[in-house]
User: Fold these one by one.
Assistant:
Number 1:
Amino acid sequence: MRDYSNLKVYTESGDEIGLTRYKFKKPIGYGCGGKAYKYRCGKVIKLLTDVGTPEQYDLMQEIKNLKLNGIYKLENILSSDRYLIKCYAGSISKYYKAKNKDLWMMSSSYVVKEINKLMGTASELAKRKIAIVDLNIGNVLITNEGLIIIDTDDYDRSIDDCEDYNLFRIKRTIDEVLDSQYFEHFRVENHNEFEVQHALTFNDFTDESFQRRLLKHKRPIDWFYKEN
Ligand SMILES: Nc1ncnc2c1ncn2[C@@H]1O[C@H](COP(=O)(O)OP(=O)(O)OP(=O)(O)O)[C@@H](O)[C@H]1O
Ligand SMILES: [Mg+2]
């Protein structure tokens, strides 16, 4: 466990977060950039391993203020400095309980609605030239509130063709999620992973005309069995 006794972290209004008073048990997740812990009621505190930049701080604040549907609700952006230039040190977000839900088995209309929600989120960010560089299967949670993107710390403002880039990241992440969920049903039906990948390569779940086809089937799995 990291020793937080020397680390000082401040909320947007300049209050110091008592990291030493708070008992940090096992993190709920960690990567190379930081660690996330359950924090107080229904919240997550993420603390970076190394303090970030003022640009990262501004970007996280902008994302927080946009209050976009498909992105985790950010409650507070933390900085390493109370007054002067605020460098990004972490965030407090709403805790989303990840559900073991299988997109193949949910209704097609729900899946299409959630994918389009994320596409809308990606477009809104692109309008502000924010590229969702870190989006992957690890950073999208399947929750009671649908698909929720988390971990926006490393988003980038320097990518051209941001809209295309963002929409491509959404498509790839949805494919990753569907591909990772193939195992349960397809194995028993003797479909192999290759067939699922093939179907995902030639059908774009984010494409409007494909979605119309998908909606003719009750669930994505019904589309798979009938059309592949
Ligand atoms: N608001 C949240 N609600 C539920 N779970 C969360 C939340 N924030 C983070 N987590 C959990 O903690 C894990 C790690 O958090 P996060 O993705 O923000 O950082 P990371 O990927 O470990 O770090 P980094 O990408 O900065 O190296 C997530 O994969 C997720 O399981
Ligand atoms: Mg992550």
Note: The first strand starts at residue 29 and ends at 30.
Number 2:
Amino acid sequence: MALVYPPDPDRVEEIFRRFEKADPNPHTELDFANPFTLLVAVALSAQATDKQVNKATEKLFAVADTPAKMAALGVEGLTPYISSIGLYRNKAKNVIALSRIVLEQHGGKVPLERAALQALPGVGRKTASVVLNELGIEPAIAVDTHVFRVSHRLGLANASTPDKVEQQLFRVVPEPWLTRAHHWLILHGRYVCTAQRPKCESCMIADLCPSRGLFVGAAAGKASPATKRKAAKKARVPRRKD
Ligand code: SF4
């Protein structure tokens, strides 16, 4: 199967039909109790794993699960809870600043609208997308490293930046699956289509994947180091703000 773009709509439909059959209601693996704790967890998760964030927020949210309680902690009080997470100094400043803005300008409620969310400190397009999508407010496909890699390997996208990949996914993913596509692609990338040694032998969409031959069987053995390096480079997401 050749890696061509745009992908065949029947193939795309079958990919998402199988994702849905295997996991009809996918959700984020970040722990949260309300829109505010979801926003904080997503903001903390930039360049950190969900496990690292959950470990930190378990104790943090026990004492600060509202903007008022978080603002009362202040940067000094918040820092020890999140110091195990990358970029924690900046994240602490942003979380306290956004908590104060939510309190003072939005009556203590997280504004669940893209422009207002993205106006909060440290909240970029990707963070806003994850929050709005998780709460079922707006279909969004936040393109992180997993979504970027899996989309390329499956031939759902071929663009070189996360924003362009997101636009391509919106064009090719059928509407009924748009809200859940983000989760399926992330989970598939995290547990099956991993960056190193993807588990193609047990992949439920292997017969629909044009990249399978790069990793399995005779073709994989024959691929030159340069071809493998090129494929790995192409599937690596460029860094961006959030
Ligand atoms: S067949 Fe392999 S490369 Fe293709 S989606 Fe599955 S795990 Fe990823």
Note: The chain has two domains: 9-25+142-234, 35-134.
